[in-house]
Predict the structure.
Amino acid sequence: MARLELRGIHKAFGTNPVIRGIDLTVTQGEMICLIGASGSGKSTLLRCMNLLEPVDDGQILLDGVDISEPGRDPQPVRQRIGIVFQSYNLFPHMTALENALLAPRRVRGLSRADLQGPVTALFERFGLADRMGHYPDQLSGGQQQRVAIVRALAMQPEIMLFDEITSALDPELVGEVLDVLRSLRDDGMTMVLATHEMGFARELADKVCFLDQGRILEEGPPAQVLSAPREDRTRAFLRRVL
């Protein structure tokens, strides 16, 4: 079942076209990895998916409903489609727990008592139970990124978007964040990731999409796109990163 469908999406910043007619279907429980060089449009595409950026043309359908119509309130959509960025964006004056509780309390109107149990369970699940009372500057980069993921999951989203969430981490911290994504994959979470972690994409993605100059130039199963790409441009990119 298609959960999220992009039809002919275009997005430009001023006179600079960034997304040029992208079509993409994301089905329930699917993990899609977006790969491509910096500036290929991966991050902008993710930001369009949960309405952080309005599209210039095309449609974004969530469960068959066009969510990209001008004037639509984006907040209900963002409750259903969570996003985690490369920069953790944690509030430095709040503990890890307070960071995770803030959005569901303000947006969903839930009390701290309502949230304490399920949010604590998320911290425990991702190995952060002993870090809930710590401030961001007391946490490693990998721990901060895991807190950012917990914060997004506290909103109980149906779909998760991840934008290069390991690229700012030291190599030894990448694995602990990828383990979180593996766990979500095992749970059947529907996910779209922009990533440079080709080994991870090969292991767990259902589909890999290679973006080039704002277009999906090639898409298919990881074994096909990463091991036997059809396009010269895909082969050139993979030679540089593998």
User: Anything to note?
Assistant: The two ends are 33 Å apart (CA to CA). Residues 64 and 230 are 32 Å apart (CA to CA).
